[in-house]
């Protein structure tokens, strides 16, 4: 039976979620002359399964910093925290970052007695191809090819170790200023997920030392890890910002689908965030966001 737990995020959880909420809070408005940087306080409510395939969830209510920086190379924007090393009308090469939440095994029935899952940080290059852009530049279709190394981290005690690689190619359709919803941005992104053996073992492997009669030992394999669909919307007002997202996961056909830690083949995550923009740069830059 699926359970729902609501709790306040601690320091480790905030570290793990900081990049995710920064991505959510940085979904900007339209291409225009915009401040070089903007900042303000925000509040987010996010709800996740403990991990993809888990049948238990956690809800976090947490403050976060709304930060947008529109530099020529380093950027914090709707694509997340990234370094932009190559940009043309058709091709971009970025450095992308992602993150995941921690899981306390004592609070998850499938993982009882197993080591906790530390929050992870993912970092690596992404190559983006613009397949179509509307004549009015209010819509675009991109193929995104991110390859990221994954590192599990913790602050108490401080430690970090690599847990593999993940590759998440996806098609992203971006639409904004759609009448009569002028000012709103809508983004849909979908694609498969691939992971190496270490990455899948981190979430779905069961060492013989932790096997039980209900949880047999399991060795994860590299390969297809299911598919995802992410829908998001946002709007930037003169002094505040609002955004929301929903993510759907399907694990049918995943190489780890038969792991005893996979309790359901579908997953859903969602979040909503608000921010007050109280500081901004006097310098304006051309931002195609």
Overview of this protein structure:
- There is one protein chain.
- The chain has 289 residues and is mostly beta strands.
- The strands form 2 sheets. It has a 15-stranded mixed sheet that branches.
- It has one domain (3-287): Outer membrane phospholipase (ompla), Chain C.
- Helices cover 8% and strands 57% of the residues.
- It has 2 helices and 17 strands.
- Residues 1-16 and 21-31 have low confidence and may be disordered.
Brief summary:
By secondary structure, the protein is mainly β.
Features:
single chain, 289 residues, mainly beta, 15-stranded mixed β-sheet, 17 strands, 8% helix, disordered N terminus
Task: Please specify the SSE layout and strand pairing.
Layout: E1 3-6, H1 11-25, E2 32-35, E3 37-49, E4 56-70, E5 74-77, E6 80-87, E7 91-100, E8 120-133, E9 139-155, E10 158-167, E11 170-178, E12 181-195, H2 197-204, E13 223-236, E14 240-250, E15 266-276, E16 279-280, E17 284-287
Parallel strand pairs: 1-4
Antiparallel strand pairs: 2-17, 3-4, 3-15, 3-16, 4-5, 5-6, 6-7, 7-8, 8-9, 9-10, 9-11, 10-12, 11-12, 12-13, 13-14, 14-15
